[in-house]
Amino acid sequence: MSSEQVVNGGSEDTDERSQKKSAKHDCGAADLEKVTDYAEEKEISTQDFSGAISLIGDQRNKQAAEKIAREKELLKVLIKKEDVDLIVREMEISRIKAERTLREHHGNVVKALIALTN
């Protein structure tokens, strides 16, 4: 066997191996194309994005305004100091929570106590 045959024989084996590898790779690529065959997604325009952000901001502002209006309404409710002391003593909660619960129930101690026990 001459040195040319050894070199050529060696390169033929290498060529065959690379062809087998590329064939395997091509089959995998064809399978991958079948799996990933889908319609491309639309790009989100900056106008849509800005519109969505402003909508979320508007909703938050509206919720904040409603919360402030609710707090102002609750502050208008008259409550008795004795009622607050009773709730704090009996339920062992903070004065702030007792006042808030009493205001939410329009100064009615019984309803406030029932709400706190439930």
TrEMBL record:
Residues 16-30 have a biased composition (Basic and acidic residues). Residues 1-30 are annotated as: Disordered. Residues 78-117 form the Nascent polypeptide-associated complex subunit alpha-like UBA domain. Coiled coil: none annotated. One of its GO terms (biological process) is negative regulation of apoptotic process. This is Nascent polypeptide-associated complex subunit alpha-like UBA domain-containing protein. It holds the Pfam family UBA_HYPK. It comes from Photinus pyralis (Common eastern firefly).
